[in-house]
Amino acid sequence: MPRLALLLSLVLLLAPAAHAGTGFREISLPDKNSPTHVSIWYPTASNVTSVLLGETPAFIGQPVIRDAEPMAGPHPLVVLSHGYGGSWRNLAWLAADLVEAGYVVAAPDHPGTTTFDMRKPDAVELWKRPGDLSRTIDALLDNPDLTGGVASGRIAAIGHSLGGWTVVELAGGRFDAAKVTKNCMAEFSPIYCRIFEALGIGRDASSSAALAADLSDPRIRAVVTLDLGPGRGLTPESLAAIQIPVMVLGAADDVDADTATKAEIAATNVDSGYISHYLPSTTTRYSLIPGSLHFSFMQPCKPGAAEWIEKEAPGEGIVCRDGVGADRETIHRQVTGMVTDFLRKALPQQ
């Protein structure tokens, strides 16, 4: 065999196999009230034709291969937490980017605060959100056939909005319900106070105690928040005690919280700044993403989507709006680059 051909064959043998696509499957986690739906993305070598996942008249879908055979792991794992009233679809764009980087990604629909299950305020059990992610981790560790196997020492959590609060709780943050309800109108905005009421925060002593409990999961080795809220309810002492790396990304441009519609969760870069101030400086990275609004971290919208949504649901078109002169694709590319760089350092190969 000629020397060049021999060298090329050796390179092909030694090079890691690139996956041909993103596998996707859905499972349900049993619960005494109602099952928790979980979406899972994972690397696959399958060359079966992909389908567009989450495609709607307003939102761009992501190509996936349903129920494809996963590549053998173990793979690092990222669990995703959506915002209030959201779903697994909101961060599907980031899930696809993370799979390209070799991660398995799983996103539960949090019962009581998801698009598919918005319970009455007196039935919302906010403190169960971190547990939804922990149960998702349990399921993937116990069933390696779902993903090709997960590396138990390389697990991170990423959350947007209320999902950001959820993943900080997993890292060890503790929530003080009395702090955010005692002087809510003076300390926060009207929309925030309405959200606190909708979430049942401060409803009674038992729920406040449940929110103040330690909801951490020691298997989580790194956390990323995307314009989280309500961060100011997390106690300074608990934030200072968090020992794992945390990346805090906030929206650079605020919406007007006093005139916000019910679709808007108040401008939360204040919350991002708050938690970054109290988190340990040596293990925390804090950045505001240029051109981003609170909903810029959600799925990409089609041209004209904001106007279409306004016609269908007046006041809701904000979910497809970004800062003046900014575009969501550019924002997402920047976020993906920052997140993958952060996770590469926070979850090193073992």
Would you kindly provide a brief summary of this structure?
The chain is an alpha/beta fold.
What does it look like?
- The chain is α/β, with parallel strands linked by helices.
- Helix content is 33%, strand content 19%.
- The chain has 12 helices and 10 strands.
- It has a 10-stranded mixed β-sheet with strand order 3-4-1-2-6-5-7-8-9-10, with helices on both faces.
- Strand 3 and strand 4 form a beta hairpin.
- Helix 3 (129-142) packs across helix 4.
- The longest helix is centred in the C-terminal third of the chain and has 19 residues, at 328-346.
- It is globular and about 55 Å long.
> Mind describing the biggest β-sheet?
10 strands, mixed
N-to-C order of helices and strands? HEEEEEHEHEHHHHHEHEHEHH
Q: Show unreliable segments.
A: 1-18, 256-267
Strand content: 15-25%
> If you average the pLDDT, what whole number results?
87
Which word captures the global form? globular
Rg over CA atoms: 20 Å
Give me the number of helical elements. Answer: 12
The largest beta-sheet arranges its strands as 3-4-1-2-6-5-7-8-9-10
Distance between the first and last residues' Cα: 37 Å
